[in-house]
């Protein structure tokens, strides 16, 4: 009985391992010059990438029939491992193709890209350029994705944000950076966009072997080097190859920032500890505290770090929120203070965190850009001057390699801050400084802010400007805001005669809005029983030239006519 069983088992083994002809039909991208199969047995070349060549049957189809043993595992190349074929997006693990048992029909396989010819643009739902360049550090081709600003111009230099773990981190950062920096330039040349940060170049870094390149070093008992072999190679690649390459290829400033998550989040926190670190901004998500040595080293550095550093952690990211919680507690309890450091929590799990935190992190990296939130604190200094404040503001933005001009928006922003704080003297200093600039605050906006804080001296000065030589913009804004001038001159200043002078002067200074100013003169005159002869003239003008407008109707004219 044992002999029969042994014979049966032997027959089963022979059947299971017997060779059988299997036809492989492979579809490749156009322009493929040769295709080889390589795998786990002699018929497949024993993993030699240039031994078993397929026959070409069309521009994009290749075929071979092989006597295979099962299970069979294999891949395709164009003759070397540097030209390995991918059936999945190139940033995903390209597993062996596996056939476990004989099949009667052809086996169809589609190669979507080659290792040296990665074409990833159509795989992304956001604009990037997939590029390759050779790394001497890794002795291999590296893949990066570059996203340029919509308004990219080689005559302008841009800060650069490098994003490690590109498959997961690149999309939220490209989209966040794009939205935060969005511009809309009107026909008047003014930027009406959000413009919360400058336009930036974003570079996504794909890892050939993420485990090798990014594994943190937790055991420092044998030596005190910060990084393991693979991570040290990644550091050298970034410092000495990728950053110089991007600076050579594109119009960049000296401001570079880098983003990492989990393993790469741990990695980027080590970079400022190197004296030749090129990154002035660091974003680190989801970092644990496996090593007391690392925590102490990083914590000591963060107390006085000159770089803009953002550390984000998820409240639902158990095991990867320890460093964030520790640093947040230190900052809250004022065990140290560093305004360059921001540590924030998000209600997020490990993979949710980068999506939720990307915009907040980006705003911290560029927190000095067009930022006037410190204006009131700065104004408290005994040596403060508005001119000195704006000099410092321009200098702070040079961190990003950007030379800013003081704009109308800058001036209005700080004037409004002073207005809301009801600091009349500070407000007047801003207005005085504005009057000396090429781009200055619009007269009507100054008038409006002055009336908000009852600064009659400034409001009166604007009225006097409007009574002398108003610009077309002044005329339009006065016409659009006549009720404000009516309220101020008649109710606050008790001077309707000044309002009549203003309306008459504007009437003579414009063709487009004469009808509205004529009505306003007539109404004010009849209301206050002033200059009634002139009022009748302007009322007749309105009746004769009436057209639909936003100031008055025919019924308004009839009511005034009855008061003559």
Topology readout:
Elements: H1 2-17, E1 20-27, E2 36-39, E3 52-53, E4 55-56, E5 61-68, E6 72-77, E7 85-86, E8 97-99, E9 107-110, E10 113-114, E11 129-135, E12 140-147, E13 158-163, H2 166-180, E14 201-205, H3 210-214, H4 229-249, E15 252-261, H5 263-270, E16 281-285, H6 292-302, E17 308-314, H7 322-332, E18 341-346, H8 353-365, H9 375-379, H10 386-397, H11 408-420, H12 424-434, H13 443-452, H14 456-466, H15 472-480, H16 482-492, H17 496-509, H18 514-528, H19 532-544, H20 554-561
Parallel strand pairs: 1-9, 13-14, 13-15, 15-16, 16-17, 17-18
Antiparallel strand pairs: 1-5, 2-3, 2-6, 4-5, 6-8, 7-10, 11-12, 12-14
Could you give a quick summary of the protein structure above?
Helices cover 41% and strands 17% of the residues. With 564 residues, the chain is an alpha/beta fold.
Description:
It is a single chain. With 564 residues, this protein is of the alpha/beta class. 41% of the residues lie in helices and 17% in strands. The chain has 20 helices and 18 strands. The strands form 4 sheets. An 8-stranded mixed beta sheet has the order 11-12-14-13-15-16-17-18, with helices on both faces. Helix 13 packs antiparallel against helix 14 and helix 19 runs antiparallel to helix 20 (554-561). The N and C termini lie far apart (130 Å). Mean pLDDT is 90; it is low at 1-17.
Features:
564 residues, alpha/beta, 20 helices, 4-stranded mixed sheet, elongated, 8-stranded mixed sheet, 17% strand
Strands across the major sheet, in which order? 11-12-14-13-15-16-17-18
The pLDDT mean sits at 90
Q: Helical percent range? A: 40-55%
Distance between the termini: 130 Å
Strand content: 15-25%
Largest sheet at a glance? 8 strands, mixed
The best one-word shape is: elongated
Q: Please count the helical segments.
A: 20
Total beta-strand segments: 18
